[in-house]
Amino acid sequence: MKTLFYRLLVLILFAAIGAGAGYGLSYTQPEKWKVTAQFEQPTIPDLGNYYSLLSTYHFLNSNSQEANSQTAQQQASEQVYAEFKRNLTSADLLQAYLLQTEAVKLKAQVAKKSPAVVAAELVEQFRFEKDMATSADNVSLIAENAEEAQKLLADFIPLVNTQARDKLNADLIAKWKVLFQQIKAASELNINGKQGSQDWAAKLQMMRSVQPLDNQLTAYRLVKSPSVPLKSESPDPPILADDWGIKWLTAGLYAQFCGESESSTCGTLI
After folding, report:
1. Which residues of the chain have pLDDT under 70?
2. Does the residue 2 lie in any domain?
3. Which of 157, 172, 137, 156 is nearest to 48 (CA)?
4. The organism sits in which domain of life (predicted)?
5. What is the pLDDT of residue 229?
6. Is there a domain that residue 23 lies in?
7. Could you tell me if 125 and 16 lie in one domain?
């Protein structure tokens, strides 16, 4: 009975030492702050006049009234958001952005590392994930400086949107130019008789009368803007204490087992 009590006391002591060490260690580690932004796909008003020109293009190209249907609007919104997410998760774009920031340049000087190395290390602290509760998309940055993390993430979002907008606009302009030349040629050749000529002329006039892209396209809807968190992400003293307490308790059990077993048996467990 005394032996059992002694063993239990030793295990409790091991767990207490581990928990105390873990709790104390938590205060020696630098704090980590997590800044998060949350996005959803944009609505049609978010697209500026991009959607108007896109639907006009589809109408002239297909002669279908469905070019401006609810389904077409949903598809356009999904297409725009997909381009935004492609840029948002681009490691190359993120690396190029970070290389231009003063934060990375300063870190490189202090750590005596190249800016490219510091930027690459910082890229690893970005996380992209789906919020299963809301189906929104999250991007977060974990860093030792909360204000710095908030600024880096907040400044990255407009850059991502600009990249997405430029690509979408360029693609639409290229398709528009091809269609314009086709309709212009058809109108000049007077194909399909007089009635056909009038139809092609009307299409040509429609293409000439549209307003140019206004560059107001926002390829996302911001659900949660990145802000400075009120509480650090890590270290968490209670969690670290529990973790170390369990580890030391396991070590105590292992030590007692090895004390009663042959060394060869313990060797197989290592």
Report:
1. 1-29, 63-68, 190-198, 233-270
2. no
3. 172
4. Bacteria
5. 81
6. yes
7. no
